[in-house]
Amino acid sequence: MEKVNTFLKYLFDTMPGSDFAYYLPMLIVSGLLIVAGIAFMFIYNNRKKYDFAFKRMFKNTSRNLVLFGLLFLFILGSRYENIPYFGMRFVLYVSLLGLAYMLYRYIRIHRTDYKRELSNPKSTLRKEVKKETNYSAKKRKK
Q1: Angle at 29 (CA atoms; ends 27, 34), nearest 5 degrees
Q2: How far apart are CA 44 and CA 26, in angstroms?
Q3: Which pLDDT value is given to residue 104?
Q4: Is the dihedral of CA 47, 51, 52, 56 positive or negative?
Q5: Nearest-CA neighbor of 118 among 54, 48, 60?
């Protein structure tokens, strides 16, 4: 029972101290998430014009990546400054679990639903061909 109690105290300690040795890897992960979110935003803006399934299924991906990157930056900052309750190990582990679930969900969507939608030619890959209208000062012949 004492081991469970010490583990729970370790997990839910409001001010866990400054002995966190993963500042640099977590900064790299949060920076990569922010850069990946910005890069995915450009990819999404290019593909949404002609790929309806991609537009529908991956609408919030870039926003979610950037938000997770900012969340990790906030958690690291509060951990570095020993702010109570925000620097808890539990908050860090729950946010890492949320990131893992989000990545798993998007990979599963890409492998199953997106490929199924690509095989359906009615709903995807709409290349819009714009018909150009020529305007001139001449009257139309009837």
Answers
A1: 95
A2: 26
A3: 96
A4: negative
A5: 54
Q: Which of 99, 117, 31 is nearest to 61 (CA)?
A: 99
pLDDT value of position 128: 59
Q: What is the pLDDT of residue 54?
A: 87
Residues of the chain with pLDDT under 70: 17-18, 121-130
* CB distance 65 to 33 below 8 Å: yes
Token digits of residue 65: 């990546």
Query: Exposed, middle or buried by CB within 10 Å (0-12, 13-18, 19+), for 142?
Result: exposed
Q: Are 60 and 120 in contact (CB under 8 A)?
A: no
